[in-house]
């Protein structure tokens, strides 16, 4: 199982998405992205290109066991 949380953590806290899905493939379908894009988000923990902007959403994908 995976939890995907997308949020803004600026002056005003906004949670855009917080869902649990069984696989990364299902998550990709829910986000309307390719599996490869979601797998890259899941594996890369360093600075991403979009994080160079002043305002960007924080994306956390965590795997957990049932």
List the helices and strands and how they pair.
Elements: E1 2-9, E2 13-21, H1 24-31, H2 35-43, E3 58-63
Antiparallel strand pairs: 1-2, 1-3
Proportion of strand residues: 25-35%
Radius of gyration: 12 Å
> How do the SSEs run, as a string of H and E?
EEHHE
Structural category:
alpha+beta
| Mean pLDDT figure | 86
Strand count, sense and barrel status of the largest sheet are: 3 strands, antiparallel
Helix content: 25-40%
Query: What is the overall silhouette?
Result: globular
Summarize the structure in words:
With 66 residues, this protein is of the alpha+beta class. It has one domain (2-63). It contains 2 helices and 3 strands; from the N terminus they run ββααβ. The protein has helices at 24-31, 35-43; strands at residues 2-9, 13-21, 58-63. Strands 2-1-3 form a 3-stranded antiparallel sheet, covered by helices on one side. Helix 1 (24-31) packs across helix 2 (35-43). The longest helix has 9 residues, at 35-43. The radius of gyration is 12 Å and the shape is globular. The N and C termini lie close together (7 Å). The mean pLDDT is 86.
Name a few traits of the molecule.
single chain; 66 residues; alpha+beta; three-stranded antiparallel β-sheet; 3 strands; globular
